[in-house]
Design goal:
By secondary structure, this protein is an alpha+beta fold. It has two domains: 44 residues, no CATH class; 57 residues, 2,3-Dihydroxybiphenyl 1,2-Dioxygenase, domain 1 (Roll). Helix content is 20%, strand content 48%. The chain has an eight-stranded mixed beta sheet with strand order 2-3-4-1-5-8-7-6, covered by helices on one side. Strand 6 and strand 7 form a beta hairpin.
């Protein structure tokens, strides 16, 4: 089953934004990668993905879901006729895939 994982917010500097969210709003800094940071309210599993100086890709909503078994989830979505926009891909920061709704809005899936 899919669970909501993150929301993307475009910022000028992910480092400055993470510091602001931490110091001003009390969010915890969860991840610090070279091209994005994530923050989250204490006690929440949903992350705010701070995307530096860029717009989300065309069609990309910035919404990310998580699942324990991405291969099974993608197979289930395919079986139901869901358009897979990005096959299961393994990167240094995690395993991901993408899908689109009937209007072309794209969503990410990351494996927990």
């Amino acid at each position: 089953m899919l669970k909501f994982g993150s929301v993307a917010v475009v910022v000028k500097s992910e480092k400055r934004a993470a510091k602001w969210y931490h110091e001003k709003v009390g969010f915890r800094i969860v991840d610090r990668y070279t091209h994005w940071h994530t923050v989250s309210p204490k006690g929440s599993i949903v992350l705010i993905h701070l995307c530096p100086d860029s717009r989300p890709e065309k069609g990309n909503t910035g919404f990310m879901y998580t699942t324990k078994d991405i291969e099974k989830e993608v197979a289930t979505l395919k079986k139901k006729g869901v358009k897979i926009t990005m096959p299961v891909t393994r990167e240094s920061y995690g395993t991901m895939a993408g899908f689109a709704d009937l209007y072309g809005n794209e969503f990410w899936i990351f494996e927990e």
